[in-house]
Write a structure and sequence with these properties.
- This protein is 20% helix and 26% strand.
- It is α+β, with helices and mostly antiparallel strands.
- The chain has 3 domains: 23-168, no CATH class; 192-383, no CATH class; 397-479, Immunoglobulin-like (Sandwich), CATH 2.60.40.
- The protein has 14 helices and 19 strands.
- The strands form 5 sheets. Strands 1, 2, 3, 4, 7, 11 and 12 form a 7-stranded mixed sheet that branches. The chain has a 4-stranded antiparallel sheet with strand order 16-15-18-19, with no helix packed on it. It has a 3-stranded mixed sheet with strand order 6-5-8.
- The chain has helices spanning 2-25, 31-34, 37-42, 46-49, 57-60, 108-112, 116-124, 140-143, 146-149, 195-199, 211-217, 286-294, 322-325, 368-373; strands at residues 203-210, 222-235, 241-251, 254-261, 297-303, 308-311, 314-317, 326-328, 331-333, 347-349, 357-360, 363-364, 397-398, 409-416, 420-428, 433-443, 446-453, 460-468, 471-479.
Length: 481
């Protein structure tokens, strides 16, 4: 009988083996294995990273390899794998034992060991979440299925934020496939908002990483985690307005900021009220009120008197001209980069409230139409500032948009050699105006990058034309949905 039992077990294993192998067959292309997101955010060479713009490395000149930053060899902070065994040195890259013990059991602590922002939400800041705190609480893999975690589609994504990389969503199969009774009928946005825009209590950010600590001591040092705010922007993933956060950095007086969608695990049953966003409905929204009175949103302020940081709370909609209107004080750590990581007031302002370089990934700011709907004063001049450049261009140039083809966002780059009036217009193939991005604006010499969103356009060929002084040029771009 025992031999029969063994045969049955062996037969079962043989039958199941293709299923297990298939589940792991594409792991080598998964985000967990490749960890391409780090260099996509940081790297200087867009041809290598595929990023929409060069990263912070352009200002640091420090490559992301382990010898310099120890970023790619990321594993839980206790330096023990899921079996409790030390990781080999050098770290060979992620394998099964990073998450799975030898019995293939997984705990949420294995997830939290790497996903630090979620750890901060739950354990450091103590935020509630209706899914995590339910009578039958959900765990990470209830939403993030093994097909997502193991890279079953075989696509090597550049970032976990890239559309398609994370399959989990509020309205996925088995979750909120239909909205609560009465919700759809009472939604004045017509489905244009993602659930988290109303139901996330907060996003979080670690304010102003001190990059000298990372380079010299391999320590991740930020001033502090900040919370009790959500930024709103248009998500590339589904074209909806959703929550976004940021990362700010400083290194040797150079400053950087990167913005991207962020789905916080701080979900509440009761959503926001209309007046949390709409000042035109009698609401009090400090970000919009600042913009309407000064043309700027001062998101974060360093208080030198007591060495503390203050920031805007509540909803912070990202305006179309955020590159010139969004401000935050950049700071630096005054102590030894090798100091232990601990709360400290030993920081000071660099003297800049705007970045030397920045990126916005997989999202675009609100359009002027969207801004007007919540009470922004869009008659305020929406400026476009030149990107950082070491020298004035020696000729007028209109470059090919990148990426191209694209869906739904791309960037148009041009150079002007003298102060002049500039017009940049997008046309359809029949010559009808689709959108005027710049209309006769007086602009100074420099290199400019202008984002363009085709989220409301159908697939096809479009033209964009630049007129500046006596220079006129046009190029084709392709929307592919």
């Amino acid at each position: 009988m025992k031999y029969l039992f063994k045969l049955i077990v062996i037969a079962f294993l043989i039958i199941q083996m293709p299923v297990w192998l298939y589940g792991q067959g594409n792991f080598s292309t998964s985000i967990h294995k490749t960890r391409k997101g780090k260099n996509y955010f940081y790297g200087a060479n867009t041809a290598v990273t595929g990023a929409p713009a060069p990263g912070f490395e352009t200002l640091t000149n420090v490559p992301i390899d382990d010898a310099n930053l120890a970023c790619t060899s990321c594993h839980p902070a206790d330096n023990l794998d899921a079996n409790g065994d030390p990781y080999p040195v050098p770290y060979p890259g992620m394998n099964c034992n990073d998450c799975h013990s030898s019995t293939f059991a997984v705990t949420e602590d294995d997830c939290y060991g790497c996903h630090g922002r979620q750890t901060t939400e739950k354990n450091t800041l103590g935020y509630s979440d209706v899914h995590r705190d339910a009578a039958n609480p959900l765990v990470c893999w209830d939403c993030h299925k093994k097909e997502e975690l193991h890279g079953d589609d075989g696509v090597e994504y550049n970032s976990m934020l890239e559309p398609g990389a994370i399959k989990a969503d509020c309205q996925q199969s088995g979750c909120h496939e239909s909205l609560p009774a009465g919700h759809s009928g009472n939604d004045p946005h017509g489905g244009a908002l993602h659930c988290d825009a109303c139901h996330a209590q907060t996003v979080i950010a670690c304010y102003n990483c001190h990059f000298e600590s990372q380079v010299q001591a391999k320590l991740k040092r930020a001033k502090q985690p900040i919370h009790d705010f959500v930024m709103l922007a248009n998500r590339d993933k589904d074209g909806k307005v959703g929550t976004m956060t940021f990362q700010s950095l400083s290194y040797q007086g150079n400053t950087w900021a990167a913005f991207a969608p962020y789905h916080a695990h701080t979900i509440t049953n009761v959503g926001r009220a209309c007046t949390d966003c709409h000042v035109n409905f009698g609401g009090q929204n400090e970000a919009i009120q600042q913009y309407n009175s000064t043309g700027q949103i001062k998101f974060a302020i360093w208080n030198s008197g007591d060495s503390t940081l203050s920031w805007l709370h509540g909803v912070v909609p990202m305006p179309a001209d955020y590159q010139s209107s969004f401000k935050m004080d950049f700071i630096t750590y005054n102590g030894n980069p090798s100091d232990p990581i601990a709360p400290s007031k030993n920081w000071s302002a660099i003297g800049e409230d705007t970045w030397d370089g920045h990126q916005m990934f997989f999202a675009t700011p609100l359009t002027k139409v969207q801004m007007a709907k919540i009470g922004f004063d869009t008659t305020i001049t929406v400026g476009i500032e030149p990107v950082s450049t070491d020298e004035v261009p020696n000729r007028f140039t209109l470059q090919q948009n990148y990426p191209n083809p694209f869906n739904p966002t791309t960037t148009i780059k041009f150079e002007i050699t003298e102060a002049t009036n500039v017009t940049l217009t997008v046309y359809d193939i029949l010559g009808a105006v689709v959108e005027t991005l710049i209309s006769g604006k007086k602009m100074t010499p420099g290199v400019y990058e202008v984002p363009f969103s085709a989220r409301d356009l159908v697939s096809g060929v479009y033209l964009y034309r630049l007129t500046a002084s006596d220079f006129t040029a046009a190029k084709k771009m392709v929307v592919m949905k």
